[in-house]
Give the backbone structure.
Amino acid sequence: MNTIKSKLPNVGTTIFTAIGQLANTHNAVNLSQGFPNFDPDPKLLELVDHAFKSGYNQYAPMQGVFFLREVISEKIESLYGHSYHPESEIIITAGATQAIFSTISTFVHSGDEVIVIKPAYDSYEPAIELFGGVVIPIALEGKDFKMNWEKFKSAISSKTKMVIINTPHNPTGTIWSESDMQQLQEILKDTNIILLSDEVYEHIVFDGKQHESVAKYPDLASRSVICSSFGKTFHATGWKMGYCAAPKELMSEFQKVHQFNVFSVNHAIQIALAEYLNEPEHYHDLNNFYQNKRDYFLNAIKDSRFKMTPSKGTYFQLLDYSSITDERDTDFAERLIKEYKLASIPVSVFCGEEYNQRFLRFCFAKTNDVLDQAAEILHKI
Ligand code: PMP
Ligand code: GLN
């Protein structure tokens, strides 16, 4: 056989799969990959069951079930005050992952620069590389992972095609403020840069703060593709359902790729999601639900040797172990699994080689018994 020339020579198996397998092998309490260990609302499961039994078992329309797109459009308008036309500006995707991949493949040409803010979710960079794009990384600064907007501004060049942002942020659990968004809007004004806004945790924001969607900022909205996920919002990551919203001129290009990438996604689940999403209380209470989980977890570990700044959004909590050991986070994460039977994600995998802070990421989307087990282990370290 001819030697295969890899398009992604530096990519191995994702950290979530690798750590998940290690956690299983060692029978560890698993707070690594971001998914709930509980089921979606029985009402949603019933709607799905009903849709499967009502004949929605063939291809859905290419852009998605129209009623679902209408409900998403209403949701965005009521929360963020921006109107996306359900006919031409919203597409239902196979999770946010496909929305992100299709957005990058639609707009990034060979040699284009894409600004990626580090730490960054792991799916952005391989997609950029696959289409010949050049990643321009910008590191968030300090232990509170703040954006340095001067540094951001100086990273922009005539080759910048796209900027990828993510608030609430995985893995740090930080959120951007109105002032961050205004600075971003000011810097991008008068450019042709496309913004990919990963908003999968839009409904998981704590302490009375608001999610800052790009949809709230007219100039940002005009250049943005918003990617979101039903998996995060409805405790159903295994269904791989999401959507994206963008102005018509961006979406018509996105659609060209989408129709050959996946064509359409699970029909019956779209029917069920449409009905469920039509009742806003199904996502309005998510902030409180996860804030209670965060507080439960933090309270349970408050006397441990780990240092923590409460997560402001997402269902991830970073723990700072710098006063415990100087080990690299990948080594410490592995040791925690093997010796203590507790799995987490080392933050450096979202950052690159140069990163040397001492943080592990823990997912608190777990039932209290599992959070208790994790806390008990953390106290022993
Ligand atoms: N973006 C971020 C920041 C994520 O944490 C995830 C993980 N769920 C995704 C995108 C992918 O979402 P989905 O599972 O809907 O593909
Ligand atoms: N988003 C999840 C996380 O950050 C993982 C999704 C995946 O395994 N690709 O943990």
Notes: The chain is about 40% helix and 15% strand.
